[in-house]
Amino acid sequence: MTIAYLNGEYMPLDQARISPMDRGFLFGDGIYEIVPSYQGKMVGFGPHIARMQGGLAAIEIKLDWNEDQWREVCTTLLEKNGNGNLGIYLHVTRGADTKRHHAYPEGIEPTVFGYAFDIPAPPIPDREHIHPYTCSTGHDMRWHRCNIKSISLLGNVMHFQQGHSKGDNEILLYNANNELTECGACNAYIVKDGVVSTPLLDNQILPGITRQLLLGILKADGSIPLEERTITMDEVWDADEVWISSSSKEVVPVIKLDGKPVGDGKPGPVWEKAAKLYSAGKYDA
Fold first, then answer.
1. Residue 275 belongs to what H/E stretch?
2. Is 178 a domain residue?
3. CB distance 56 to 64 below 8 Å
């Protein structure tokens, strides 16, 4: 049985309990993170915790924890769950009140929850071994604060289901100006004439940690031209390559959009080079 953390205690996951009056349950009032770890080595731990702290501040949840406290919880969860290939799910809500009321209550303690779950071994970053994705496309109908990693994920879930219902692995979203935003659960990239482009960060886009690490690694290497800019869906359809990224998937090539091939319909050479750089540099980034 998975060992979980809840409000200062470690216990079997099936024994963890929260109040039905918890605002995470009633309102989706909370922030979460998922930190991948391979054989006890976490990927992007510092950036993940910094993003969580920023999200908590943005929605005014007061939790006086520093990075070392989060590291202790994560390390303990990894140890208690075997230190294999694990994702660490961290979840903080505003806590449980005595009544259901929209305004932020005073004098309640945040609920802090975490658990570890099995994840696949890191993907082999070459065109022979990777399992490429197919994606749908759809108009982005979510709220306007997608930069906050809220546990209120119904909009993302509904969009993801659009693609899933068609047999696709993900969905690429675009705004009212026909500009690429992100995916149901990933960031997005295109490649044209050897140049990698990804949308600029704003309130429409979650600042993904894999995105942050990947861009840092590519900029440091310098061999692949890179742009952060507005990308139209016409450019997406005309791209030589399309990629998506997340902490659980790393960097994945997309070979079909709405049933039509991307480029030559195979994982591209720029993806392969970038994925190898990411695989080699992710632990030290």
1. helix 269-281
2. yes
3. no
Q: Tokens 């998937």 sit at which residue?
A: 249
Q: Pairing state of beta strands 187-192 and 180-183?
A: unpaired
Confidence category of residue 285, pLDDT binned at 50, 70, 90: very low
Radius of gyration over every alpha carbon of the chain, rounded to an integer in angstroms: 19
Range of the domain at 18: 3-118
Report the C-alpha gap between 10 and 249 in whole angstroms: 28
Residues 40-88 have pLDDT tens digits of: 999 999 999 999 999 999 999 999 999 999 999 999 999 999 999 999 9
Same-domain pairing of 27 and 104: yes
**Active-site residues: which are they?**
32, 149, 182, 206
Checking DSSP bridges between strand 195-198 and strand 226-228, what pairing results, if any? parallel
For the chain, report the end-to-end CA distance as a whole number of angstroms.
33
Tell me the C-alpha distance between 184 and 188, whole Å.
10
Residue 83, sorted as left (phi over 0), alpha (psi -120 to 50) or beta, turns out to be left
Residue 127 is assigned to a structural domain of this protein = no
Q: 213 in a domain, yes or no?
A: yes
State pLDDT tens for residues 233-274: 999 999 999 999 999 999 999 999 999 999 999 999 999 999
